[in-house]
Amino acid sequence: MIxxxxxxxxxxxxxxxxxxxxxxxLYKTIEELExxxxxxxxxxxxxxxxxxxxxxxxxxxxxxxxxxxxxRRLTKKGELVINSVEAVYNCYRKNMAKLLxxxxxxxxxxxxxxxxxxxxxxxxxxxxxEKVWVKRGDVHAIHREDVTLVxxxxxxxxxxxxxxxRGIDSAVVQQHIPGDVVKFYGVRGTDFFHWYYLEKxxxxxxxxxxxxxxxxxxxxxxxxxxYGGDAIIDDNGNIYVIDLNDWPSFAPIRxxxxxxxxxxxxxxxxxxxxxxxxxx
Length: 280
What we know:
37% of the residues lie in helices and 24% in strands. By secondary structure, it is of the alpha/beta class. The mean pLDDT is 91.
């Protein structure tokens, strides 16, 4: 029996400098699923509403709240959605700031603030010092200043005011930890995991098994199946997660990752169909 799946492509505004890469990983995943016998229909995030989705199972790269809310209504009707709407919202930085530490994931000290100057809690942000990261609190970076390292309270406040002018109502202020950035990718429920130093010259030695443990715990905590992220390795080899993304482009390892992504979608689709058949 041929099963139908919907695939929803990420809106271009949420793929700054990565439109082609995001498109490639989606379509390579589609190719792998077609080999398994699935029929796939592709939709665009910018035009999606729940009424025009006929398929009961779908996978997506959506980031925007409008389309996510449409998917939330579908989920309430019992449809299968990968990554889940909950998982994508959990990856919004204002939510990660609370969820990851609660899940035992080591992260830099982070506070969530409102960008409205009348509601901004400066005294709380001041506790993190002058050199801090300021990041928009919802979706991942769209503009260059959406993730900004600042060196003074005045610079921090200027970035927050700019967010407010752009309609971004919340932000996170995050402790700066000196070290080297490691990027990682994984697919929950499989043995796929890939990491590399952002800088080609590498960085301090660290326990890779510990990175894998921390990354998987991050994904479990946020309930995200297809994920990637960034971690800081300090001079002592300590690992701190600074970001986790729902379905990144997997650009360095795309040809391998797509097979594992297809595998987890196939597995969940079979489980879903089995439940539906049992309930009939």
